């Protein structure tokens, strides 16, 4: 986080470009780990502020869904290979309807929600099955 926003905003896209190289050129399956996709959103928000764009009512950049789509929609597959991604998503104030995580969740096939409430009750694993989702469970 000690780098300028312009440099940090390229990290996720650069990692994805490297994954695409192994996928397309070498026809390999690639597993891409993204430690915290929320940092990607924060960085784009900082760049948007530097460009003096008017933020949305919640404070995020007006191009949030476009920028998230530019990253998430490149994670795909063909018969020659695939890119699979496992992403950690920070959810501010545990609000799943916050625009940043909600925009991210719209692109994911499955989500596993870890609950602070279950951890406080010493119930492990702290996976909340009611908030967790998967496209495999839908007809």
UniProtKB/TrEMBL annotation:
Residue span(s) of domain ATPase F1/V1/A1 complex alpha/beta subunit nucleotide-binding: 1-134
Biological-process GO terms, alphabetical: proton motive force-driven mitochondrial ATP synthesis
UniProt-annotated location(s): Membrane
Domain of life of the native organism: Eukaryota
Enzyme Commission number: 7.1.2.2
Nucleotide-binding among keywords: yes
Any GO MF annotation of the entry: proton-transporting ATP synthase activity, rotational mechanism
Coiled coil: none
Catalytic reactions on record: ATP + H2O + 4 H(+)(in) = ADP + phosphate + 5 H(+)(out)
Enzyme class: translocase
Family according to the record: Belongs to the ATPase alpha/beta chains family.
Annotated protein name in UniProt: H(+)-transporting two-sector ATPase
Organism: Iris pallida (Sweet iris)
